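Q: A reviewer asked whether we had any structural model of the full assembly, not just the individual parts. We don't, so I'm hoping you can provide one. Inputs are below.
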Amino acid sequence: MLEVSTQEGIAAPRSDGKTVGEDFLTDDFVRQLINVGEIDILVGLHTHNNVKTIGPVVAAIQSGILQWFPRDRAAIIDADAGSSDGTPELVAGASIDDIRPQDFNRLALRTLHSISTQYGNSVARGTALRTILAAGELLGAKAIVVVSPDSTNIKADWLRDFLRPISTDDFDLVLPTYARPRFEGLLITNLLYPMTRALYGLRIREPYAPEFAFSNRLGSRFLAQNQWNDDDARAGCEVRLTLAAIVGGLRIGQCFLGAKNHVERNAADLVPALRQTIGVLFWSMESSFPVWSSRSGSQSIPTTGSEQQFTVDLQRVNRKRLLEMFRSGVKELESLFQSILSPTTLAELQGIAELEEGDFHYSAELWVKTVYEFAAAHHKEVISRDHIIQALAPLFRGRALAFLLENRNASASEVEMRVEGLCLDFERLKPYLLEMWTGKQ
Amino acid sequence: MALKQDALWYKDAVIYQVHVRTFHDSNGDGIGDFQGLEQKLEYLEELGVNALWLMPFFPSPLRDAGYDIADYRTVHPSYGTLEDFRKFLNSAHERGIRVIIEMVLNHTSDQHPWFQQARSSRENAYRDWYVWSETDTRYAGTRIIFLDTEMSNWAWDPISKAYYWHRFFSHQPDLNYDNPVVREEMWDVMKFWLEAGVDGFRLDAVPYLTEREGTNCENLPETHAILKDFRRRLDEQFPGRMLLAEANQWPADLRPYFADGDEFHMAFHFPLMPRMFMGVKLEDRKPITEILQQTPEIPASCQWCLFLRNHDELTLEMVTDVERDYMYDVYAGNKAMRLNLGIRRRLAPLLDNDRRCIELLNGMLMSLPGTPIIYYGDEIGMGDNVNLGDRDGVRTPMQWSGDWNAGFSAADPESLCAPLILNPIYGYPAINTLAQRRTPHSLFSWMRRMISVRRSTRVFGNGSMEFLYPANHRILAYVRRLENETVLVVNNLSSAAQAVELDLQAFTGSILIEMFGKNIFPRAGKAPYLLTLGPYQFYWFRLRRI
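A: Here is a predicted structure for the entire assembly that you could use as a starting point for your response.
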């Protein structure tokens, strides 16, 4: 059936009354959902061999419901990617009565269902989110919060911070902000946040968050977007959800959650991360051109707690390796860059690739122009779009190195100022993006 | 029909709680009386109840609905004479209906001659019949029950210039059960009524009979010793009579009132009642299964007394703070509905007059382990009047018909003992027994059928119970068993239709026979047994191996 577009870029439920996504749920899962019945709150988990961390996460969820939503009908739905370590059994076996608060008066009023369903044998976050969305729609959940299974520092208050804006203030999407070490999340601080902010005019600090909450309105619309069988579209589902809310003109808020536990990543993770973030962002620019092209500047969005905090960074970063990867990328991908970048930008990049670490500097303005030229190249599909995304990886490493060097001795507030400066450069140079986007070259 | 000889009659009883004052007025003075009650025994027999619990009918200043007794050995003149009572009692027995009367042991009215004597002089022989003190600081660990009206459990007596102890209203001084003369006198009072032929007592406020410093003055061993002594005398002198405890306590604290089957025969299960209401509003069996799991086993000769509503407020003392707040919000949005730690409303208005929900709760009342009590008027869905003071809003005249004064009394309406319910929903023109007895599908007719089915088997009053825990938490399912009889009860606590899969493997091969229509349902097997239930629907199935 045809979808009916109601707002910019957002599809409505199908006119036959059937929701896209119903059919892919297993009969066993549907039977479990029948037992749950209509609910107010759905807490979604997407797991894969998380047995070491899932116990405290589920306990924190239960405590949060007990403390902040004792009267609400709630369920925990775990979409599992075929764990072999007992994670699903642990989730499904959890009972709200396992929580024995010191205060007798805090015993649970209601049954809390905890269900685990296997959606495949390998991790596919999009499919996991789709499972959670479909369950939420079938159960009529008014608010859905997705919690990362490895958020070992999760607190009961997180549920309040995520869900209250939706249940009481009619927000559609609540994203987190964290207290991060200065040099953690560089992809977010140097690319995703400033780029999203400049494009859509909203200061969303974590557009690619492992935890987030949304309304049934946003959930249903997002689920109805008939792109779930497209591998590219399934990737980066978190960013796509954020973009759906932005483009749909829905209410977005943020909540400060405190320190974010650090998940170790190796260098090889960067390209997939870029695909799932900046790749999705570039992709969204195609359909949402009327929205982003008409916006300038930016405005803050309602936030509970502070917008962002930087803390002292105890991490050691291998700067030498970053520089080497940048240099080799600039050299080896020169032919690709000739298709993607303007001669001026390429020349400047080649110039800084010659610098020694002590003199290395990748300016904010050059970085913004680089990104914008990549976006335009992606739009014009000058080469394979996936190659474009991959080619951005070494340049991002160069920018990351420059940021590290610039802020080596900076205080948290100085780092924040530099991030803000970068964002303003993205906003200031937006006309350059439009010029590149619409230009013939 | 003569009364059957059955020492455990109370286990199979369906009790009807009635206030003589507001049930039926035979002499047109605006106040119900025993002759009026006797005239309505036919109605009660038709309803199918086989026991009555009478609220206090003794001489009293009536500052607490008769729970402030001024003379234990006769009948309040407004309700008739002692002879009228005896005549009523005989008539009830002839119809196979037993009569349980109220006995307020803990306190008297301050107008009782005993108290008048006691306060007249410190040297008076009755002085030690009550609990006196020079200060109001003794027994400081004792809670105040009537929080809305009382500041202390001590009241100053300006006549004898001392404080007297009272757990309820200050005009209800507590008797001193440490005084053996008092204990003997109160047994004599009970004996007086037992000799008159009553079948049992509902002993009011029993946890509070004695006081000890450093305790909360509730459930004390000395209190249990006194009650056991009364029981011993009862069994020796009046076998087959029954004692019912009113002790608003947690199950674990209630358990000692059964002792080894040698203290009380029955006790109210106070904590269960609010949780039944909570269960249907939450649409979740959790509150009900939890409290019943916490309910200890009781001796085989003992029984729980279950009720939905009574003459008091829907008490919320035996719930947590979170639960109480929830109950207030969902059942007493109007603060006028709240009293002390409870909600002063009748069954039908509490449930928004939702017939299906009223039926469901009555179905649970009749099928959970215990003896059910129906509060007068709830069998026809009477309403209440929250504008009346104290708990008077749930004690309005019985609505017999759409005639003058609802058929309750021939008196002028202004002289009625309590105002009639007149609103368009619950007023007597709309809700009355005459109309409902003539309507096959009225609530009255349904209740009559329900009681009949309940009484068709001994399993509900005597059987064991085990919960089934289907994954659908909106379904409360349990199995009642007695000897070769097995009954499966399935309740949908939700206002929406539900599907449920029951694990009936243990009953593989049994045919399910629905007890109201006697229709056969598919045989139970090893596969999950699928049932669908409409909003608030329930089933009682007899399981038969044929």
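A: Points you may want to mention in the reply: The interface with chain B takes residues 31-32, 34-35, 37-38, 70-71, 73, 104-111, 113 of chain A (CB under 8 Å). Chain A has two domains: 20-311, 319-423.
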